[in-house]
Amino acid sequence: MIIPRTIRRMKEKMGHKSGPYAHLFEPYDGDEVVSLDCETTGLDVKNADIISIGAVRVKGNKVLTSERLDIKLKPPKTLTGDSIKIHKIRAVDLEDGIELEEALEQVLAFVGNRPILGYYVNYDIRMLDKFIRPKYGFGLPCKAIELSHVYHDIIKWRMVGGNVDLRFDTISKKLDIPILERHTALGDAITVALMYVRLKYGDPPEVG
Amino acid sequence: MPSSFNMDNLPFSLLDEREQALLRQTLDIGYFQKDEVIMQAGSVPEGVYVVLKGKVSESEVHAGEADRQEHIYVHYENEDYFGAWSAIKGNAIHNFIAEVETICHIIPTKTVLDLVSTNSSFADYFQQNLVAKAEIVEQHGDSQDMAEFMLAQVGEGVMRAPLIVDEASTIKATTVMMREKKVDCVLVKKGTRYGMVTGTDLLNAVVLNECSIDTAVAEIATYRLISVHPNDYLFNALIIMTQQQIERVVVMRENELMGIVDLTDVLSFFSSHSHVIGLRIERAKTLEDLHTAAHGLNDLIKSLVSQGVKARFAMDLLAAMNGRIMAKLFDLMVPADMQPHVCLIVMGSEGRGEQVMKTDQDNAIIYRDGLAWKDMQEVMNSFSKQLMEFGYPPCPGNIMVSNPEWVNSLGDWTQKMSSWSVSWAEQDQMNLAIAVDAKPVAGNPALFKAARNWFFKSLKNNDAFFSNFAKVALEFSTPLTFFGNLKDRGQLDVKKGGIFPIVHGVRTMALEHKILVTNTFKRLEALVEVGAMTDKHSKDLAEALGLFIQLRLRQQIKRAEEEEAGVDLTPNTLDLQSMNKMERDLLRDAFHIVKGFKKHLELHYHLGSR
């Protein structure tokens, strides 16, 4: 828990008490989480832009791929050579992308007040907040669930004294979860969702 | 959009692009732990499950924890789908349990129903209609290319446009024309009939018969033409050519001449060597020659089956080949002056043309009443011995010409058939069942026809006979459980459970309707023609029988290869473990058809009180 963020969230909640987004600040009492992933042009939140957003709902032991978000955005100026090599998304692939404002609306509507699940999820949340805050006057208030923490919490009891390898590919291999589509926002979101469900409902993975 | 879902598998490959998009749109993914119940019998299923990773077992409704192992009858692994039937019914019929950790795609029931309503072949796939399923598998199966290639129809490809000359055309003019068009065969139209003239005919006419070259070709043409339908399988055309010892057949649709199919074209179309063996049989002048030809047969069948030719068609070819071998052997061994007075018949599966591996000799001799030929039995003994050397094992029931019981004059033969038909003894009934499938293969077929016609006449209105005869078809139980699943987990006798009831039931009905053909598939077609059976019923039975034979043959060949002696000791056993789920499903459906047929026989022949 990050203190400044908590305080800020309380402040923002007060500020939007009667606004159209008040429901986002309600505590969530359902059984769903939203697995979310953004593909961006870089790893530095200040300078990077979002190029696509993928999200799926997870309910119990099911990954509801039928309820999902698969957003492509208009190509930003920062879309250059280096990041293209990683996510293999070129400007032409984003030709029919939508405007950022429209995308943010969709994200807010889809996520609601559900917890957000992700792999290094704070990066994605900060990325989204960077654009949400100037427009709406608040950041995503949802609870965040960090997959690598969930994994670490389970693994650490079996790996006393060692460093836990938290790389995406390692986790998926340890959990024996097929990586569906690496480096597409939706594909990663689904894989993370499956890993989460596997950790939550399956036996602890073997370590060694 | 999860592209992890493989659309290439049946039945999803049957969907068009729009339907696949709808499917992807509505797909969910479920994660199940080891031993978790995915679908509970009696519950409302969420939809159809497709295994992405893991293993799921389907088990019977009342399965308790302790003895669950015994009740499991199907396993689903990667990319198998399950629960389709339950989803459509809206109520799970079995328990589906994850054997290991399992990830499944879930297609919601609503989507399945939508797809079923818009796409009929997709819908068919989920229905338990055996014919439809088998056809879909056939069209989309792995062996697609080979099967299509071997099942090409006459009308596609190899048929040539006929060259037709008018009646007045002379030998000279015709020869010039044939040379110009580079063909070896023309048709002459005489009145409404067509005659065929080949290069050889022209040569014989001019050189041997010393006809003038101004003679009209209409005079030397052959008018008894063998024709096939453009929809016939090319394979059948080849069989006809082998049987009739000809090199060309004409293609007729109703009364319209479509074209000519030439042997060389068919041969170049089939790269297999079936006709080569046929030719070798034909050209054999000595027993040794014939011996070599006979031994090529098994390899031929193996190669045909491995190329995906349906057993049904391989059977037809083998029957034609076996017939030719026996006829040739008969020619070589029986003195020419005796040949018009004796008739060699084959019986049982050989007579029906339904054997795929060379099996027992089931043959007999009918000779003219009062024939004086003192060496006859001796010749017959060596005939049987010779066949054995060719690789036809002796008949365990000793139904072969080396047994004097089966060498009869026409009078004795009819007498025997008649006494068998009124006897209730098991052996007599069996003899009769074998004898009514008889087919003449060599000698004078008129003797056989006389015997058969007499027998049909004597059966007239003898209801007691038919009901007694039909009874045997119900003797063996169908290997299905109370819940309609395959009974035997490991080994299953497909002859008792499936083949025999169909063959014998159809045989009885064919006798009742005086149908002359002996092949079960043809009998089924004939029964539809005389109105004794519905078309659907007949097709289902044919499909089921075809499946039994196909599965049996495949395992037979496999076992024969594994055995050192090259002989399969348990020819009628099916090993369920070595079949995939689709085959087991088809097999189960086929047994359901057998069950229905037995019910029908029971009603029809008043056997209900048993």
TrEMBL record, chain A:
GO terms for cellular component: cytosol. SUPFAM superfamilies: Ribonuclease H-like (SSF53098). Keywords: Exonuclease, Hydrolase, Nuclease, Nucleotidyltransferase, Transferase. CDD domains: DEDDh (cd06127). It comes from the Bacteria. One of its GO terms (molecular function) is 3'-5' exonuclease activity. Residues 32-205 form the Exonuclease domain. Its EC number is 2.7.7.7. This is DNA polymerase III subunit epsilon. It comes from Neptunomonas japonica JAMM 1380.
TrEMBL record, chain B:
GO terms for molecular function: [protein-PII] uridylyltransferase activity; magnesium ion transmembrane transporter activity. Residues 11-83 form the Cyclic nucleotide-binding domain. Pfam families: CBS, cNMP_binding, DUF294, DUF294_C. PROSITE patterns: CBS, CNMP_BINDING_3. The keyword Membrane does not apply. Signal peptide: none annotated. CDD domains: CAP_ED, NT_GlnE_GlnD_like. SMART domains: CBS (SM00116). GO terms for cellular component: membrane. It comes from the Bacteria. Keywords: CBS domain. Residues 221-277 form the CBS domain. PANTHER family: MAGNESIUM TRANSPORTER MGTE. This is CBS domain-containing protein. It comes from Neptunomonas japonica JAMM 1380. The lineage of its organism: Bacteria, Pseudomonadati, Pseudomonadota, Gammaproteobacteria, Oceanospirillales.
